[in-house]
Design brief:
The complex is a heterodimer. Chain A is α/β, with parallel strands linked by helices. Chain A is built from ten helices and 14 strands. The radius of gyration of chain A is 18 Å and the shape is globular. The longest helix of chain B has 15 residues, at 35-49. Classes of the chains: A alpha/beta, B mainly alpha.
Amino acid sequence: MAYLRALGSYVPARVVDNAELGPMVGADPAWLLHATGIEQRHFAGPGETVATMGIAAAKDCLAAAGIPASEIGMAIVASGSAEQRFPGPASVIAAAAGISLKPAIDLPMASAGSLFAIALAAQMTRVYGNVLVVASEIMSRVVRMNPAGRDTAVLFGDGAGACLVSQETGFAEIVDAVLASDGDFAETLRLDFDAPLYMDGRSIILQASRKLPRVIAEVLERNQVKPADVGTFLMHQANLNLITRVAQTLGVPDDRFFRNIARYGNTSSASLLIAATEWWREVEKPLRDPIVLAAFGAGLNWGAVLAKPVATLPQA
Amino acid sequence: MDTQTRIIEIVKQVAGKPIDPAPEESLFESGVLDSFTLADLVSALEKEFSVTIPDSDLTPRKFDSVARIEAYLQSRS
């Protein structure tokens, strides 16, 4: 068995609100808020990297878990915006977090990376014990921060998140995961070498609007859980309207979907874990209802993870 | 009611406004549809024409005008 044990996050200190971003991309700040639902986002500082932010999130998670890094058997790091081709940030993050001489795996998947990492970690715990999942993204450096790049620049922010998946204990048991990929739409959202991020927004929204509710319904149906019985849906914070649409399609109140995109924008793979961390710190414990984690992103890759409360185990 | 008229009625419903698009008029460029109403349009077309539109066919270009929607539906029948 595998459990969600603890969460952590890090966002850069610099906050960029719509009043600051608007002139940079040639957009009215009021339009920015109306079009995106985003009030502000965080941008990495000059000395920050995907790795440094990931290290901060990893340490935050380990502190929340209350276990030393020496008890971590594996690290999986998701990032679509790492600064170099190889090595990816996983080994550097693991070493700096104190996870030495253990396997550290990169998942360069972008938005769905942290969800896939959690699903993989749930399997890996059998061999490696505690698995630390980290997601870190600096999206502000891969978009065009000018009027030509307005449509994508306004959506993204920087940040990192982490999740400890344990074989021993936790606040929720990971009971199932449904993951899928479709390379036929790989061109619709991509980050080529030496080019800014490209996104065919209409295609992405169209695909996500269909695939996300479907994959969530699939993981629930095969575990005999009704959407209405889910306490909280934790989704990749890509788009406020998309989250609302997924809720409507599933027939659940949209307040069951945790949302913090207004304060961070879309931080790609980190967004799911940043949202989950905020939710976990606020939620009444012990957990009483199942939770669903879901994400959709470049690849296309998408999926959903179902976790149920663990009433009989010590709460991490 | 012919196919184009049925399509226009569906487009009106999902757009939520009175419109009368020309067959070749881009429903996106004219502001009739956006990313989210496009998803509604696809679902409404499936229901109205009793077809299942696979995800592999979900490209905005196929649904960009009444004429293109009609051509796509004909290709599915």
